């Protein structure tokens, strides 16, 4: 039995996230409407056996990925390069396999991940985006980036992020470590990049929504520590829309 690691990229616009929704609707082509379902359908065709694909991240509906890691096990002896080529032949044009590689026994895409890096981009111009529209949040009003940077400095570190998660996330612990959190503006685009050892449900999008409220002058950056300590979701900002979010890479 081999363990194959895939490095995957996809445009999430058409999909209901990564995770298989076995009882959910299908697209008009008869394919599942999640990235995982599409992959497993084509892997079964290529390998002549079922394959359960496990990813490093369960991206939400509409979220994109530049480099998501996933793995599956197979008895098929098809070479790695042939698996990659076959998948890229069958997959829709908005999904691509960057690499396929046989890994040592025991490799696990989710459990062995050390950190994940996400990027959120805000199109902060008066004119709406065109080609960039599927990948950015258009926000045409002024945002104070200096205040957003100050707020970000309070969010970095190891905290209980209960105030920055949405309903439906039931875990034993809500403590996570944010290793890096940067806010930069260049040519009218605000780029927020965040790296952490793990994320709660919608955590990145809630952080972004909070930073936008700070940039609007609605939340003073100095109150961020109080919001974190409160563990009260209602005190943080709204959940930012998914299409501005991209999983950049997973570190091992």
Summarize this structure briefly.
By secondary structure, this protein is of the alpha+beta class.
Provide the descriptors you would attach to this structure in a database record.
alpha+beta; Alpha-Beta Plaits; 2 domains
Note down, in words, how this protein is organized:
By secondary structure, this protein is α+β, with helices and mostly antiparallel strands. It has 2 domains: 2-103, Alpha-Beta Plaits, CATH 3.30.70.580; 115-251, Pseudouridine synthase I, catalytic domain, C-terminal subdomain (Alpha-Beta Plaits), CATH 3.30.70. It is built from 5 helices and 10 strands; from the N terminus they run E-H-E-E-H-E-E-E-H-E-E-E-H-H-E. Strands 1, 2, 3, 4, 5, 6, 7, 8, 9 and 10 form a 10-stranded mixed β-sheet that branches. Strand 8 (175-186) and strand 9 form a beta hairpin. Helix 3 (145-155) crosses helix 4. It starts with a strand and ends with a strand.
């Amino acid at each position: 039995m081999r363990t194959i690691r895939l490095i995957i990229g996809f445009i999430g616009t058409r999909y209901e996230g990564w995770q298989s929704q076995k009882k959910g609707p299908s697209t008009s082509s008869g394919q599942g409407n999640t990235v995982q379902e599409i992959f497993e359908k084509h892997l079964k065709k290529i390998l002549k056996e079922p394959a359960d694909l496990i990813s490093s991240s369960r991206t939400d509906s509409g979220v994109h990925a530049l480099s998501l890691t996933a793995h599956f096990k197979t008895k098929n002896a098809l070479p790695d390069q042939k698996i990659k080529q076959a998948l890229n032949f069958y997959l829709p044009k908005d999904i691509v396999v960057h690499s396929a590689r046989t890994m040592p026994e025991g490799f696990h895409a989710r459990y062995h991940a050390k950190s994940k890096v996400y990027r959120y981009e805000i199109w902060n111009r008066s004119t709406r985006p065109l080609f960039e529209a599927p990948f950015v949040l258009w926000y045409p009003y002024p945002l104070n980036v200096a205040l957003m940077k100050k707020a970000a400095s309070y969010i970095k570190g190891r905290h209980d992020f209960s105030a920055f998660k949405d309903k439906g996330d039931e875990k034993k612990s809500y403590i996570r470590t944010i290793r890096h959190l940067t806010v930069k503006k260049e040519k009218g685009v605000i780029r927020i990049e965040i790296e952490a050892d793990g994320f709660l449900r919608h955590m990145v999008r809630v952080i972004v929504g909070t930073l936008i409220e700070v940039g609007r002058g609605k939340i003073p950056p100095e109150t961020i520590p109080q919001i974190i300590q409160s563990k009260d979701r209602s005190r943080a900002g709204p959940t930012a829309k998914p299409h501005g979010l991209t999983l950049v890479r997973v570190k091992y």
